[in-house]
Amino acid sequence: MNDIEKNKKYNAYVEAKIPKTKAFPSLFNSFWVGGVICLIGQGINDSLLAIFPNMAEQTAWGYTLIALIFIASFLTGIGVYDRIGRFAGGGSIVPITGFSNSITSPAVDFRNEGIIYGLCVKMFSIAGPVIVIGVLSSIVVGLIYLIF
Does the keyword Ion transport apply (predicted)? Predict the structure, then answer.
């Protein structure tokens, strides 16, 4: 059996094993769960502004982000956010709660390896490349903006 036949056979095997998803229910669940997460964030922000009427709007948004990150980290720690992610897909990943989950989840998974080699090393294994690319791309955009 040559390499081309092996590749075709392997591709057929992989295609048979990949779980089939139904596009409409997946997209619908992603849309409404992401919307509910954003609705919760808006509710927290509006509540802060109602309770503290002298608070600046940007300060309220900062506290809202802190609350959303804490809630997502807590739900990840007790295993609930993973179930939400399996159900909602991208709807749970795109908001800031998904970023919180991407940092918290490896930290929870590798906590048995100790604080240094478990938590500290593995915490940014998923989110680290995102942070690096985000910082580098913002520098490039800033330089382009500065030049032009």
Answer: no
